[in-house]
Amino acid sequence: MYTDPDELDTDIASIHAEIRNLQKRKRILTSSLLATDPIQKLLQKAPASAVSDDLAALSPLAQAAGKHNELNHHRIAFGATAFPFKDPSPNSPKNLLGIRIDVCTRNGQFTKPYYILLRSEQRGTEKRLRVHRHTVPACISMAKLESAYLSRPVRDADPELAKPWKGRRQDLRGFARELRRELVGWQMRVDAVEFLREKLGLEGRYTLEGSPDRDTGVVSVAAASLEARYVRLEWEDGRVGRFKLSNGGIVERAVVIGDQGRDKKTEDMMTGGGGRVETVLDRLRVENRLRVERVSTSTSSV
Amino acid sequence: MARQKLVRAPTTASLPNNLRIPSSTPSLIKTLGKLSRQALLDLAFFWLDDRNVESFPPFLQQDEAEGPDNEALPYPAGETIEEIQQVYSDLQDRKGGKREVLDRILEGDWRNGITLRQLAMADLRYMDDHPASLRWTALELSRVGKQSPQQSPDWSGSVPRIQAATFVQALQREISPLVKAHYHLGRSATLPLTLLRIFVVDSPYQSPAQSAEIFTDSSRIIYVAFPDSCPFIYTSITASGSKTAPSTSSVATDTRTLQRLVRDAIPKALSRPQARFSLNATSLAAKNLPTLLTLRGPGRSTVSNGAFSIFADAALEGSPLDPRPSNTVAPEDHIGIDPAETDSGRDSTKRKSNSLEGGALSPLSKQRRMAVHSRFGTESSIAQAPLDRLDIRLLDRPGSDDEDTVPAVSLTFSGSNVISGLRKLAELGVVDPERMPSWMTGEESVSVATVRGGQRLQKDV
């Protein structure tokens, strides 16, 4: 039987991919199994002398799995973990303090971890931490955070210069807490916009072509920038709107402009009723119904 | 009515979008000729689209009736817009050179001239297709003056929120007394950028008297790119660049002065009362927009490169839900690259893996490979941000403490990807990966640096 060599190649490639996937799955299962409670307990219980040969051969792997499991629990539970890092560069400060921040997304997955590496600077007698490298996106200002929480403690030399907000000591905990809060807030805003888009059936579409949502008349919802602080809305009748989203998921302010100027009723509907962003579409639906009624009564009265 | 057209009064308005450049201008043909056939067709379709056709009216038979025209032109005027759209659809369907499309546009449907807006669109399209066609400089926007501490702190970056039209208006207000300009704003089709193209001319008149060649003079065109959500802007104005021949109109204002005027006006146009901005240099210029986006962009990699790219790419550890211990997982797996893709896709990795498979690794080379990896970080980070030039000034005194003789040693590396080349040298053992300073690994993410004792000085000396 004649077979096309290209076809054979693709077959081989797909089989290779399959093998890789299975190997990956096997390793995930092995690690999960080794990290389970019964096995970990067994390891801890068994005294070192009584460990059988099989267990001894197994134990480094099992111990690594246990340790990693514990680490993951910390990362999930606390969100911010610290670790030491050695800078390989011969001319820089060697030992860095790393902070890893994990943020959970809507679908239960975690984003790529964010890292902040701090170096300690010796200035005279005092030591201070400074941000050396980080992977925080530019929409969160590291410089502002650093100056607020990691600014140099002022020596009480000149009371004129010692501004009240500068007198603070270096506050690493506060720094990590604020930064994590900001990252989580950002992720929640991004998730909220995604959620609204999903509800309107707009996922993956960024063009205006497409049928508007029947109940609200909304044609598009999108974050105005990567920061997702402002969200832009468009209606089928040409009205455009924008609302500001707080870190807590509240619609703080809204502006809607149509052909006849500001549409205050819709604006109030968006910010009113608790202002939760998740229910903003329900409120718009109510508003849209009222609007249709208004239009029909005004035409019938004429 | 016809007489009014002859009146030329100096104004402060910008050059109109619909100012036509004669289609027979040789440099115009050359400029449009740089575009590919598909790009030309896409532009023609856009111009003829029902929503846009009013801004870019093609030459129709009814226009022919208005003025007596010579019949010698090779393309008969179309009767309706649909007919012309059909012509381009036919061109789209069949194969051929770009010349026929270009001729059709210039000698046929837009024989009356190409407007400034059309030319600007063509230029932006060319940039989309060739992201490495210009040299870009990254500048940082920073707030001038201290901000008072607020009750509820706002940690968002100092990115001025701008509305494109308002910004252009403000810019126009800044520069209109000095130069006349044409503005075109466009969104890049391939990169997260908004591009502003400014064409400047030193004439106060609405329709400049200079020859039409001036409209395609590349030294009069300034690009400003606004990447999304980050306090940087990129400009095509280079400090040393534009050494091209002085403009043909021998007025005292040369093109570099015009460029300077525009550059100075940008931060002012971005500022508002109580929120003033200034532009600062960031020691990075590269001939590639993706490089600037990686090294001075909104993403994770702006402040962690070189050895720290393992953090930017999250190649070190996996998600907290991954049960596998981190040291047993390949970095590619963490980043999420399909190994099959890297094998076939990237040429450099393929070559590297081949050379390594060739012979059994000696412990020495393995150690070196580890060292190279720890200094340069992930390979994808270097491939994403090629630097075409790296200028280093060394201020170290060799050995002796002789204060008077500071040798001025300047190093210039140039090539398609300087950092990747240095990495290759380190892999081959030419450079000692453990002792090399960090500016060689791309960690500093700059293209110009002054170095003392292996460390980059923040301020240029």
Characterize the structure shown.
Chain B: This is CHL4 family chromosome segregation protein. Chain B: It comes from Penicillium olsonii. Chain B: Residues 319-378 are annotated as: Disordered. Chain B: Pfam families: CENP-N. Chain A: Keywords: Centromere, Chromosome, Nucleus. The complex is a heterodimer of chains A (302) and B (461). Chain A is α+β, with helices and mostly antiparallel strands and 302 residues long. Chain A folds into 3 domains: 25-69, no CATH class; 81-180, no CATH class; 200-301, no CATH class. Helix content of chain A is 43%, strand content 20%. Chain A has helices at 5-34, 37-45, 53-78, 142-149, 172-199, 264-271, 280-301, and strands spanning 80-86, 95-101, 114-123, 126-134, 218-223, 230-235, 240-245, 251-258, 261-262. In chain A, the strands form 2 sheets. In chain A, strands 5-6-7-8-9 form a 5-stranded antiparallel sheet, with helices on one face. A 4-stranded antiparallel sheet of chain A has the order 1-2-3-4. Chain A is extended. Chain A starts with a helix and ends with a helix. Chain B has 461 residues and is of the alpha+beta class. Chain B folds into 3 domains: 13-128, no CATH class; 131-143 and 158-241 and 251-295, no CATH class; 303-456, Ubiquitin-like (UB roll) (Roll). Chain B is 34% helix and 15% strand. Chain B is built from 16 helices and 12 strands. A 6-stranded antiparallel sheet of chain B has the order 4-5-6-7-3-8, sandwiched between helices. In chain B, strands 10-9-11-12 form a 4-stranded mixed sheet, with no helix packed on it. In chain B, strand 4 and strand 5 form a beta hairpin. The termini of chain B are far apart. The interface between A and B is large, with 55 and 53 residues.
